[in-house]
Amino acid sequence: MTPEDKSRIFNLAIEVLKENDRGAYTVPTKGLYPFQWNWDSCFTALGQAHFDEDRAWTEMETLFEHQWPDGMVPHIIFHVHDDGYFPGPDVWGTGRATPTSGITQPPIAGFALRQLFERSADRTAAERRARALLPKIEKWFAWFYANRDPQGQGLVAILHPWEAGRDNSIDWDEAFDRVPTEGIAPYTRRDTQHADPAHRPTKAQYDRYLWLVEHFRGLGWDNARLHDASPFQVVDPGFNAILIRGCQDLAVVAEALGNADTAARNRNRAARGLAALENLWSDRHGQYLCLDRITGTLIDSPSIGGLIPVFAAIPKSRAAAIGQVIQQQATRLKYIIASHDPDDPRFEAKRYWRGPVWLVVNYLIVDGLLAAGETEVAARVLRSSLDLIEQSGFAEYYDPLTGAPCGGGRFTWTAAMVLEFLDIAA
Fold this sequence. Notes:
The chain has 426 residues and is mainly alpha-helical. It has a single domain (3-425), classed as Glycosyltransferase. Helices cover 50% and strands 4% of the residues. The strands form four sheets. It has a three-stranded antiparallel beta sheet with strand order 3-6-7. A two-stranded antiparallel sheet has the order 1-2. A hairpin with a 6-residue loop joins strand 8 and strand 9 (405-406). The protein is globular and about 60 Å long. The model has no long low-confidence stretch (mean pLDDT 96).
């Protein structure tokens, strides 16, 4: 890629971020996702920091203004009315002054906080804003371990597939079959009006998504009760790796701000999580697997969720094995990294999280591979990611066989990751 190409793509990415900016928060894309999403906003802030540090901090601050009293940070904040998205605030029924959903999402905020803090040109402002966000993020992390790890095992469970961000992953199929579909209120989906239905979750999956929402709503969104009351309890290694890395990064920021107690608590959480993560390793697959907490068994589903742990400080031998899995994928696919093993008969190249490439996950894995010294495979993933942009623009996700754009277009977090990738490649 020539310097001129890099400059052109850099400016196009900024254009997408600004187009989706709503002043104090950013929508993922027009139409399909018209509100503020939790982990999207944290990725967005990383992109915004390349051209407007103040705006990047505001993105994070707006998210945490809607933290629940118990510490949970919801996955959607419904700042404005828009009936183009389902399920809307009336379905969630969480009773918040500004309506929110009642579940959470991968806690990228710890990592994003450290990135904004360490990259900032205005150190005074960065320290002031980091001091304000630090206790809020730690409260969220403490909430995870109190409410999603009730036995104190060191790893947390998701109670709804949407919490992982990988909504229809093959990882969930077996456990999701336990979720009933009877008795849910009639509904009309909106996502299939904005994107090809063949690229989206199925109706059977949506029925179960909504059963869980209605079940949790019936329990008053009492987070102290939801874990044990859920028929879906899955320990996702990717989700936990993001939390572990967040704890590590939060500790670094806390120490820099002179808060030794916060630093110690979060280093302890990370150490316990890393030790427990080893129980999810599969020698046969050369990666981590999800754990079904209800049955106590690993789920035989080699997805990208088991590669994301390289983002945390896993053993170098594990990072090398994950690098080999990615290299093997690259011999069978035009673009990497697929969100599921392409040799699995359940793989679907265009259906959301059952096969397509997502640049946000590529970014997490590249960051981890570089830290582990796996520079060759990291460079390969980075090149593949930028090749997708050149071929297919800023799509939500991509077909790994052809590079065809899928899902929403002019997508915020894709643009943000492009800015990050260009910076890494510089």
